[in-house]
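ok so I'm stuck.
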Amino acid sequence: MAELATLSRPYANAVFDLAKNSGSLESWSNTLNTLVTTSGDTTVQTMLNSPDMAAAEKAAKLAELCADEINDDAGSFLYALAEHDRLPLLNEVQSQFEALRAEQERTLDVEVVSAFELTQGQSDALQAALQQKYEKDVALTSRTDASLIGGAVIRAGDMVVDGSVRGRLTKLVETLLQK
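replied:
not stuck anymore, here's the structure
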């Protein structure tokens, strides 16, 4: 949703700048992951959505739940989000932060979903081709999905290449229905 992205951007940029200037990109990445994971728990979600609790109190409770995993800066960040009723943006802030971090570190996370398990040679060739195309270090993860019938779907950043048999059949059906 574009609105969430727009609202989250200043917070993600601020956290990224803080992390970059202090040399703690990985630490902040872990912190945001902890906050998002914790806030995703159903009990915590209930607490965060409660109209009976003030926003600052919600931030304090979340910080308390994550106390072993976060530092004072992260607590201050939570209070800043709460002060402006932006605690629900944690997921989007984390997503934007990770995108900024990947750009800074010149890395690209690529997911390959294939009908059959990739061989090491196929993985290496695909990784090399993507590194050359994007001029970034590529972290390749793969998994299988038999429903693709054959081929693969590659997700690299905001690009998706659907080379699966299922995808091609779907396109063929759409084309035939248009005529």
